[in-house]
C-alpha cells in the first residue's frame, strides 16, 4: 500500500469519527438551551441514571411530560443525587434552562428540589436562590 493510500484511509477514518461524534457534541454543553432560567414543578414519572446524562421524566402540573437532563454522572453524584434519592411519584421542582425550541419539552437542570432538599447539578450556574 502506498503512502498516499494510507493517508486517504487515515483521512477517511478521521472524517467518519468526526461525523459520528456530531450528535454527542450537539447534545452536550448549553448551546441548545435558552439563557434565562425557569422553574418547573411536577411529578417524577421515570428516572434513568444511565450515561451520558442521568435524566428524569417529569409530568408538569399541566400534565405535559418533560425530559429533565441532570449533570453528567460524576456531577450528579457530587450533587448527592443517586438512583435511590428519588422515586417515581415524588413531587419535584426543577430550576433550569429550557430548550430553545419551545416544541421540545426538555430542560437542563441546574438544581432539583425533592422533599425540600436541593440537589445542585451546576451550582455555579444558579441565578436564583
From TrEMBL:
Biological source species: Bosea eneae
InterPro entries given in the database record: DUF6152
Pfam family of the protein (one): DUF6152
Protein name: DUF6152 family protein
